Predict the structure.
Amino acid sequence: MAGGIAAQYPNGAEVVAAVNVLNYVAGQVGRTVQFGPDHGLGGAGSFKQLTDLVADMSAGKVAVLLVHGANPGHSLPAAFSQAHGHVGFKVSVSCYLDETAAASDLVLPDFHPLEQWNDSRPRAGVYALQQPVMQPVFPNTRHAGDVLLQVAGRTGAFKDYLQGRWQELHRRFGRGRSFEEFWDDALQHGGVYTDVPVQPVRLSPDVQRALAPAGGQPALGWQPSPAQPVLLVVPSGALHDGRGANKSWLQELPDPVSKITWHAWVEVHPDTAGRWGVVNGDFVLLKSPFGTVRAPVWTSPGIRRDVVAVPTGQGHKAYGRYATNRSFNAFELLGAAPATYGGRSFGVSVAVTTTGDHRFLASLEGDARELGEEIVRALPLAQASALKPGQRPFREEVVPRRAEGAMEGWAEAQRQKANLEYYAGEHPRWGMVIDLAKCTGCSACVTACYAENNIATVGEELMLRRRQMSWIRIERYWRPGAGAQGSGLQVAVTPMLCQQCTLAPCEPVCPVFAAYHTPDGLNGQVYNRCVGTRYCANNCPYKVRHFNWYDYAEPGGEWESWPDPLNMLLNPDVTVREKGVMEKCTFCVQRIRGAQNRARLEDRAVQDGEITPACAQACPSEAIVFGDLHDRNSRVARLARDPRGYHVLEELNTQPAITYLARVVDAGT
């Protein structure tokens, strides 16, 4: 798919057309690629309409401006900010005091999306319905819909108006049910979902003319080179266009590729950086025809030598404690004129100047290579297709590389000490399977773990000292590709968390038995017994244990992670850890015990799939599966026996409860 390429280059429409032609030639249209109406896109407006509004504002044609759910003061900083001053009366309906709200004459505090009724139509066939999940936190806020209804002289609340609109959907999709039944069902399922007919397509006779560049000129208007590279402004995977910048969870979430947190950067190819005489952390000035920013360099072999890239999301002048005056605003490098297809061009020519200044990057990047450990394994498609049940293609290759008997004595002693027969009895053995063919490295599991388990955010200063607390991390490795003459590059990613080892090296070294083995096979941690020796972290080969160097829960403290009202998001089922305590992944033991208690009260066994850890619940590709490995018929047990399965560092004989399924790759990539 073309993805967001149309928003990157002036010839974006031609690029999308070329991708569609390739899909057609490959026979994917009608199979993996389908065409149909997109009413959500059609009703969303365009960048050209925004620039036309800015022109009218500058000309004094706008007397009253109402802005709701947008922050053009940040995303269109120069043009909109200048035009904003020519409007007679400016109103912002927002839950945050962002750049647009700060420059307005009247700010109407809006409900947070979690506090309000609303609906939407994200795509054809989907009518989404949203209900509040909490009471309003602040007393002086009002729903924007209620404000508009009152200004218009209408009676009733926005919810009543919303139900009135859904009467029409009830007439179309009610299927004989009363409106109350239809409404309750829509609330339960988050909306109404209908089938949309697929539109058949064929190649137009004018396809060659549509793909040909005008006059044979470069689509960018200039020939990029390392001396005058193309700069691409790319959306941040976590902060998006900046709307997520005031959330500490997202600021502390490492970028899936660079692993940088809390600040922006400019991505440069190592050869280009060498030509400029800069290294990671060196500041350069990026000057476009529209603005100049100062950015630290991060080198990456995954970018072209004549291209540099910066992420959006940072550089707010106003937006709250976690976003204001942090790094630079990438939108300042872009112009305000729409591209030929009506959208915004995110590609621009820049001049690069070195400054001689340097900073340390707040990056959690480890070694970019795997150092021969084969943490992320891959199988060619032909080999994976030929595998039979019971085959283990990796074991014979990996185990002999180390002294096979080096750990045997210790392992036997551990078996006797732990009395493993006790754990193999009536108790379950909780385990997990992670399919690397499905994992995209999006990091949704990381943030979900923060939310579920009350994990502290430590801030940029402590991230520079690598004091992160995340229980799960996404490891990223570069690999040489298999292109022509060995060219190309591949990226491999894997989630890494506590492996809940059967023979856990962390347990026997704890002098106070704070690290212990539970009857159902978990590596437990008793927080109020821990004295902080950190021997367990030193002995963990997976490096997934984290130490509380400061008291992140102290109200008003220097390192407070949950200032009011963020303390309302703490999970009451999970202990908030204090200074001097070691912590790690627990497989969301609070969910395990909750399900076991419910099953005991109902006099039944825990059902397969009844327990889902937060990481598995949040995974959009369902790459993570959890369950009882002792139940041979459970989904996790079946997947654990998959021929693609392997254990990370299995030669250490720690017997992890997590099985990884190898990536399946095309031998030609």
User: Anything to note?
Assistant: The two ends are 17 Å apart (CA to CA).
